[in-house]
Amino acid sequence: MDTNLLKRESEFAWRIEPHGNMHVPAIIYADQALIRDMDTKVYEQVTNVATLPGIVGASYAMPDAHWGYGFPIGGVAAFDADAGGVISAGGVGFDISCGVRTLHTGLTREDIEAAKTPLVEGLYYQIPVGVGSTGRIRLDERAMDAMLAGGARWAVEQGYGQVEDLDRTEEHGCMPGAMPQEVSDRAKKRQRDEMGTLGSGNHYLEVQHVAEIFDAEVAAAFAIQAGDIVVSIHCGSRGLGHQIGTEFLKKMAITARDHGITLPDRELACAPIESPVGKSYLGAMRAAMNCAMANRQIITHLTRQVFADILPRARLSLLYDVSHNTCKVEEHRIDGTRKRLFVHRKGATRAFGPKHSELPVALRQVGQPVLIGGSMGTGSYILVGTERGEQLSFSSSCHGAGRAMSRHQATRTWRGREVISELAGRGILIRSPSMRGVAEEAPGAYKDVSAVVDAAHDAGLSRKVARLEPIVCIKG
Amino acid sequence: MVSSDWELFEHGADIGVRGFGQTKDVAFEQAAMAMTAVITDPQKVAADVEVDISCEAPDDELLLVEWLNALVYEMATRHLLFGRFEVHTENGALHAKAWGEKVDRAKHEPAVEVKGATYTALKVRHDTSTWMAQCIVDV
Fold first, then answer.
1. Which listed residue, A64, A131, A223, A379, has the most CB atoms within 10 A of its CB?
2. Residues B17-33 pLDDT 10s
3. Catalytic residue among A66, A301, A399, A457
4. Which domains does chain A have, with CATH numbers?
5. Looking at chain A, which residue has its C-alpha nearest residue B76?
6. Which domains, and CATH codes, for chain B?
7. What is d(CA B117, CA A248) in angstroms, rounded to the nearest whole number?
8. Are A66 and B13 in contact (CB < 8 Å)?
9. Is A356 known to be catalytic?
């Protein structure tokens, strides 16, 4: 991106003054190197978002921002329903409530070294992964609606996991206001046998070790220390979310004109929050959020079963579960007054600072864990939300490394088997049904997650707590 | 330009599918073939199962997205991959047959699942001899 297009507000904040139809400015958080490498499409998209009705504050892009659909991936925008604010299916994305959860295991690196191979085989056998895989759970119509209304809470009631898990999940595992009746039969049919499946693409389950601690005090509150073994799960709402995204993108594109909305880009399709389409999407999207949280909860249960067989000493307790493709109703301060806003985070993680009432008591003094997935060879990060984040970005931070190279280019550069043996040489075991999938997800195809996390830290969006390195990875 | 062909094109995190043909119908068939190529080598997909697909949209571009999304839905719910297509469009309506087989992970080694076709880089165009139909698919 040409930095001449931007006004440098601080070392890590770049501003685009309102021009044309923009209602608010746009602000991109990044350091100089990240902003130079950033696609010019991010400029275009973050600017387009600022033209949508009822947007407040600013249209934001996180340090990992890249070209998305209408919204940039890494885009954050808040809308005021009372000021004609909109909700956008593209602003949430196809994989509704895709997210990351990290579990403690109570084990250290020494405990698992000898069990790595049975562990990777056990996880790969037990957790359905990749194209065409199906879960062992079949939901009839009633059970489907109960799952869509209840989320992870429903999953725990069915015996998948522990009540304590819910306290460590956003919205306590159950998004209120979900309307299963607004989810089409086609979306439900796509989900019928996909509960408890990981999916493909950049989704994964990893056993990781805590390689480095940056903030000992917060790490203690999160109950992690160097050498600990944790498990991270990255996946979303599967076919149900994809189908809802597809259907509402079309509905909103068609009805936008009836609502007097001129779209600079069809992918920005949106509807007033208070319109019938807006309300219908909100109900369906919340149901998909519940589906994603239930899905991660079921995968957690399967993971616990594998550990119980292979490493019975392990105690898997949830550190936290975040969703990074969402629209949530939150209160934020705008021009000195608190307002109820619809905050879209497309490829961005909620990052509440200390004392936020939404946080479980055990975490309230330090702030919300912000879980950032990297590529399978590099590493992941745990950060914590900051007080400043509320003014900077409606309490939002980055969500991952972002691709540096297209899938196509990656398959021309690497072979899956070579990637697997290179990582095995470094002690990282990968299992995947697809060698081409592994090549497409090669570590070198991703940007340096550390640069993204450093920029989020330096900009004040969230603070670094720990760095995780993979040991075992199950990949779609 | 050959009379019918497909190709994939680059898009940051995802991938673009593009079909060419002497008619719009062939370009739509080839775009579908490109979508299969995102997942697996289309030549590995046998034509064992036949599926009928119908959809409609107010213009050619939205019709392309509807067509590809109808295939995504059939692939997801029937666990199929498609390797052959026959498309007929008329006045904003599309009727098609798609032939394929059940996903076989050993045989097809599917790389990635397509979540949906998008409106990004969406174009259906033609010059004197060739139609082109393209969009980005989310994976």
1. A64
2. 999 999 999 999 999 99
3. A399
4. 3-404+446-475 (3.90.1860.10)
5. A190
6. 5-138 (3.55.10.10)
7. 13
8. yes
9. no
